Amino acid sequence: MTATAQNELETSVQIGADGRARVIFRGHLDAQTVPACWNKLALDLRVAKLETLEVDASGLQFCDGAGLALLRYLNMGKMTPGAAVSVVGMKADLEKLFNGFTSEDYEAFRPQSQMKCRSLPDEVGGWVRRVTADLREQVEFCGSVVSNLPAAFFDRKRMRWEEVRRVFELAGANAVPIVSLISVLVGLIIAFEALQPLAQFGAQIYVVNMIGLLMVRELGPLLAAIILAGRSGSAFAAEIGTMKINEELNALTTLGLDPVRFLVVQRITAGILLTPLLTFYATFMGVVGGVLVTLGLGFQLALIFHQLTTSVHLSDVAFGAAKGVVFGAIVSAVGCLRGLQTQQGPSAVGISTTRAVVTSILLIVMADAVFSILFFFLKR
Amino acid sequence: MSDPAEIIISVRGLKTGYGDKVILQNINFEVRRGEVFMILGGSGSGKSTLLKNLIGLYPPMEGEVWIEGSNLVTADENQRLLLFRKFGVMYQSGALFGSMNLLENVRLPLDELTALPAPAKELIALAKLKLVGLGASAQKMPSELSGGMQKRAAIARAMTLEPRILFLDEPSAGLDPVTSAGLDRLIKDLAHHYGITFVIVTHDLASIYSIADRVIMLDGGTRMIVAEGKPADLRDNAADPWLRRFFNREPEPDHSAQLN
User: Fold this and answer.
1) Are the C-beta atoms of residues A268 and A333 closer than 8 Å to each other?
2) Is the CB of residue A109 less than 8 Å away from at least one CB of chain B?
3) Residue B58 and residue B52: Cα distance in Å, rounded?
4) The dihedral of CA A339, A340, A346, A347: what is its sign?
């Protein structure tokens, strides 16, 4: 026989040689006393193969939900597999609470194993179905935008230019500091990284040519678009997604207003107009970063300028601007689409913003690859 | 006069507001153990602000909030944590965690705040869910439930640590009359069988007449309690015309005049 006192609970465990055991509780069986008591009983009752277990609850002065859980756990025989368990001596009110949640309830409500193993064709089929459904929504969205955009441009009533101006300021003007910092640093990094290999051939001055071409044709548009995707594409998705959850989109529809015409067209217009400007600015700041490095090496500004103007042509600048227009349209359209696709639930807006950024960057890189192939064949 | 031994919540000289703006002042009332106590008032009368003061989410400008003999307003961090264990709160939207199923929602306080073994936590959580009639929905996500079921689940979660007091914010808001009546019956049963004290902020007249033992009425104009007592008494005997209109659900006279 063992006896222990834990705070206000005394637990006695009596195990007979004939496989009969008895547990006696006295005092308070509550959330404070149950953990230690539970562990002790699990150890004490495991030592022998029991045939019967009697739990004497007549000495309990207080028993809360934790105490009831222990009594029910003992009663279900979870600590004494194979033994017949009875709980005796409960006061009437405690017995009523004890019977409020039975072993049958536990078996009916407890979590069942939810491991579901889907077959490979099932998985692939599900994936294809999701991708094609998303593709269909994208095509429908593109159709809706294309049908609304020209009409909105030429009809002052259909285009809310005040909203375009607001988006232009938020997504464009407010992005200038971060675009400046990142572009200058990228120009600086590329210049430093390129200097060492070029120095082996005594060709450090060609860093300027490289920076000029790289920033104008590739990195300027890419930096502007990626910053726009992270900063504004996600904001478009969050804003429209929240509006959808708040049923504001439903309100627009029942007022007879097409959400694409009312919300999306303005954002895409702003995106198309501002991204080439951000692209030029990012290009300029990136070149400034590279020029600062070459100036630091002692090259004359006139020489640097000459190298730049001979290596970068107007067609390169136009090419960068064209990329800016396309990237701007991609980022703003994807942000709006993901916002419109927002589902219900607390994580829905977060999912939409993540999808907006990921899809935008993916499509930007794919569009960039198309531009590169196109430029290669045009220049031949 | 109420017996002090029975008083579980006591609010004394409470003044509350935001910034310099005073919303309520000179608020004094007591809640007795085991009663269903309702806080009523028109829109913007400060009911929700008062509830935030009572549950310690927002400090009042002045005054005391005594819960089971401890002043929540002056309590230090450790005392506040102990006081939080003495009451549960059901928010208007239910505020269930959307990424967890019902069982996980209800088990969360046990996981975080007790040293109970895992089977005990599961048994307690399932028992609480059964108590509110949601045992069979233990593995459903909150998004799969109706508004009434979400509120029931929120009550189960609020009861997990077996508090003596439950604060409910607009429990019948957005529910149909049948679901609302079911929730009223649950509150009544929990108060009767488990001795839980309920403090409820509501507008719902049917609930007020059905389950409230006592009510206080807040007035946004005077920023004070303008009536206190049993709802039927206030309905039948209120001298103030606005109070009579509130308890008899009648519109302001000039509303119909404008339409006519």
Assistant:
1) yes
2) yes
3) 5
4) negative
Report the C-alpha gap between B153 and B156 in whole angstroms. Answer: 5
Q: Which residues contact B108 (CB under 8 A, 6 or more apart)?
A: B97, B100, B157, B160
Q: A69 CA to chain B: closest CA distance, Å?
A: 5
> With an 8 Å Cβ cutoff, are B138 and A111 in contact?
yes
Reported ipTM: the value is 0.83
Percent of chain B past pLDDT 70, that is, above it, reads 95
Per CATH, the homologous superfamily of domain B1-86+165-249 is P-loop containing nucleotide triphosphate hydrolases (3.40.50.300)
**This prediction's pTM:** 0.74
Residue A242: both structure tokens together: 């929240």
Q: Are B116 and A344 within 8 A, CB to CB?
A: no
Sign of CA dihedral A210, A211, A212, A217: positive
- The upper half-sphere exposure of residue B129, i.e. CA atoms within 13 Å in the direction of its Cβ, equals 28
Q: How confident is the model at residue A129 (pLDDT cuts 50, 70, 90)?
A: very high
Please tell me the least confidently modeled range out of A67-81, A101-115, B102-116, B160-174. A101-115
Residue B173 confidence (pLDDT) above 90: no
Measure A89 CA to nearest chain B CA, in Å: 21
The reply to whether B146 touches chain A by the CB within 8 Å rule is: no
- Structural domain boundaries in chain B: 1-86+165-249, 96-162
What domains does chain A contain, in order, with CATH numbers? 2-109 (3.30.750.24), 153-379 (no CATH)
Residues 6+ apart with CB under 8 A from B202: B38, B39, B40, B168, B170, B171, B172, B173, B208
d(CA B166, CA B156): 11
Closest-approach residue (CA) in chain B for A111: B139
pLDDT at B99 over 90: no
